[in-house]
Design brief:
The protein is α+β, with helices and mostly antiparallel strands. It is built from two helices and four strands; from the N terminus they run ββαββα.
């Protein structure tokens, strides 16, 4: 078949960055983040996290093609440092959930 190998869906090739940043040249305080080897799950979570901040004017994501395993998240804010803050909040939320899961596993759930 022409289907790509399964590991290509989640293994980032050597020399490729997991997240890349590209500032928009036409709109100030807008940028696109390309996240390699991710899908709708991460794209939607990040979009929703950005929407929680009142300084974010637009946040959206797209998958360029079903056989390209990357998500492009686009955000437009009143201040560019909001993106950094929201990414830190999201990272902390993931770490908290991971810790809760590990505690449950230790307790035998």
């Amino acid at each position: 078949m022409n289907a790509p190998d399964r590991y290509e869906r989640f293994v980032v090739p050597e020399g490729t960055k997991k997240v890349s940043f590209e500032k928009d040249t036409k709109i100030m305080n807008a940028a696109s983040f390309t996240i390699e080897r991710e899908d709708h799950t991460v794209g939607n979570i990040l979009r929703m996290q950005l929407h929680r901040d009142p300084n974010v004017l637009f946040a959206g994501y797209k998958l360029p093609h079903p056989l390209q395993y990357k998500v492009i998240v686009r955000a437009y804010t009143q201040a560019i440092n909001d993106l950094d803050k929201e990414l830190e909040n999201l990272k902390q939320a993931f770490e908290d959930e991971k810790n809760r899961h590990e505690e449950r596993m230790k307790q035998g759930y």
